[in-house]
Amino acid sequence: MKKTVCFLLAILAVMLTACSQKTPAANVGLPQAAYLIDEEIIDNICVSLQKNGLHNVDVFKAWVKDFAETSAAKTDLPKQWVRLSDLRGDTFACADRWEKTHDYPDADCRMTAMLLMGDLLKVDRPKKSYDGTYLMMDVDAIENTDKYRMIRERETDFTTLFGEIPIPDAGIAQALPQNWEEHGISFNSESASLISVVMEDTMSPTAFVGHAGILLDEGDSLLFIEKLAFEQPYQVTRLRNTDELIKMLSARPEYAAEDGKEPSVICRNNAVIGRIISEQNAGC
What is the pTM of this model? Predict the structure, then answer.
């Protein structure tokens, strides 16, 4: 009898361990993160998106599952929740797998955020056309891939929101808030926000949104959902506060400003919440 009980307890322990990896483990402190590869984690995140009123969650789920199954599943990337500091792996391995299994461009961070905002995003006075260069890959994918037709229908809103914007005399921190005011941009949600990393162009006095994601306020914690880049994984991170979000984004060297430029700015909707202060521009 004792052997049977011990065996059952051992099985139960294994089951509980497996289940704890599908959601942020209670015994591991925040921040925690996961790549969206495991089907149950994907389902849980989509439930959170729906509960918070985000749009087009079914389409988002299809994008995520396609990427997971074709490009991320057979890499060395962690498949479960881990401490943010332990989220390691060769994300660039996904690019080769994507290109071998698809004949069209992958989505990026801005396209993913735009999809989830849906009709919650309002742009009262969009620019009539886009003549910039930073969004060339985004625009090419949107205009020439039927998968992204939902964004194509709002292309001028997309380029107004994310494209190049003049840097005012007050500095880069005022660039995005001024753009939202000028074009009547709003994101109408009580619990979801658009996070934008605003960066200065190295060749002209303009700024652009170099990265974007959706932040959910779930009361006891924050949930940040993002696509890292074209042909890079979808990632979800659970955080205690926006200070941890700023720290996470600041640790990514691709968002750091060039020498002599103002530090990149992090905005929550149209409000500045921090700057990318990395080692290379800590003295700016």
Answer: 0.90
Taking residue 251's Cβ as centre, other Cβ atoms within 10 Å add up to 14
Q: Helices 136-144 and 155-162: crossing angle, nearest 10°?
A: 170
| 33: β partners | 82, 237
- Rounded distance between C-alpha atoms, residue 12 and residue 256, angstroms: 47
Q: Which residues are paired to 123 by β-bridges?
A: 185
Give the distance, in angstroms, between the CA of residue 196 and the centroid of all CA atoms in the same chain: 9
How far apart (Å, rounded) are the C-alpha atoms in residues 194 and 179? 14
Q: Are 87 and 118 in contact (CB under 8 A)?
A: no
Q: Count the neighbouring beta carbons within 10 Å of the beta carbon of residue 240.
A: 13
CA-based Rg of the chain, rounded to a whole angstrom? Answer: 20
Res. 259 pLDDT band, cuts 50 70 90: confident
- Sign for the pseudo-dihedral over CA of 168, 171, 172, 176: negative
Counting Cβ atoms within 10 Å, is residue 83 exposed (0-12), middle (13-18) or buried (19+)?
Answer: middle
Which range, of 13-22, 102-111, 170-179, 181-190, averages the lowest pLDDT? Answer: 13-22
Contact by Cβ (8 Å): 111, 157? no
What amino acid is encoded at 206 in this protein?
T
